[in-house]
């Protein structure tokens, strides 16, 4: 991930790497939704629902942003209940690819203890958890 930037000394990569993990969109966790614009799945890093734009860049048009926020809100409601979460649009790890999280209040503690979900085989299918050993 953190390649030494020998070129010009920019601290944050503006250009996406070839192996961008959001483009790869591997289905390891529960997937809530997918369409031509975006997909929504549990984030592998923090176990919160995350919407990902299917294009590179962060300047998504308003209509796409509105669409993505409504899909993310729906996933958040499904998971945490209507008042149980807040939308977080800060792109900390992957600044070149638009995405946002629906975070419940306890996510910061929960991510160390909660059982991660796994892909059920169907987008929007049942939310299954990885069985503990
Ligand atoms: Zn990407
Ligand atoms: Zn995350």
Features:
133 residues, alpha+beta, HIT family, subunit A, 5-stranded antiparallel beta sheet, two-stranded antiparallel sheet, 3 helices, 21% strand, binds zinc ion
Briefly, what CATH class of the domain at 30-116? Alpha Beta
Poorly predicted spans: 1-10
Strand order, sheet with most strands: 1-2-3-5-4
Give the ligands present. zinc ion
The chain-level mean pLDDT equals 89
The termini sit apart by 30 Å
Helix-strand category: alpha+beta
Helix content: 10-25%
Q: CATH fold name of the domain at 30-116, please?
A: HIT family, subunit A
CATH H-level superfamily of the domain at 30-116: HIT-like
- The quaternary state of the protein chains shown equals single chain
Number of helices: 3
What percent of residues are in strands?
15-25%
Report the radius of gyration as a whole number of Å.
15 Å
List SSEs in N-to-C order.
Answer: HEEEHEEHEE
The CATH architecture term of the domain at 30-116 is 2-Layer Sandwich
Q: What shape does the CA trace take? A: globular
Major sheet, described briefly?
5 strands, antiparallel
The tally of beta strands, per DSSP, is: 7
What does this structure look like?
The chain has 133 residues and is of the alpha+beta class. The chain has a domain at 30-116: HIT-like (HIT family, subunit A). It has three helices and seven strands. The strands form two sheets. It has a five-stranded antiparallel beta sheet, covered by helices on one side. A two-stranded antiparallel sheet has the order 6-7. A hairpin with a 6-residue loop joins strand 2 and strand 3 (49-53). The radius of gyration is 15 Å and the shape is globular. The two termini are 30 Å apart. Mean pLDDT is 89; it is low at 1-10. The site of one zinc ion has 6 residues, from helix 1.
């Amino acid at each position: 991930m953190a390649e030494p930037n020998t070129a010009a000394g920019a601290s944050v990569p503006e250009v996406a790497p070839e192996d961008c993990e959001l483009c790869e969109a591997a289905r390891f966790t529960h997937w809530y939704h997918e369409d031509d614009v975006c997909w929504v799945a549990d984030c592998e890093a923090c176990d919160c629902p995350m919407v990902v734009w299917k294009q590179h860049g962060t300047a998504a048009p308003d209509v796409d942003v509105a669409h993505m926020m409504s899909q993310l809100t729906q996933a958040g409601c499904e998971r945490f209940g209507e008042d149980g979460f807040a939308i977080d649009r800060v792109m900390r790890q992957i600044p070149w690819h638009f995405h946002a999280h629906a975070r419940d209040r306890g996510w910061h503690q929960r991510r160390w203890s909660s059982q991660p979900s796994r892909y059920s085989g169907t987008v929007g299918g049942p939310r299954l958890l990885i069985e503990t050993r």
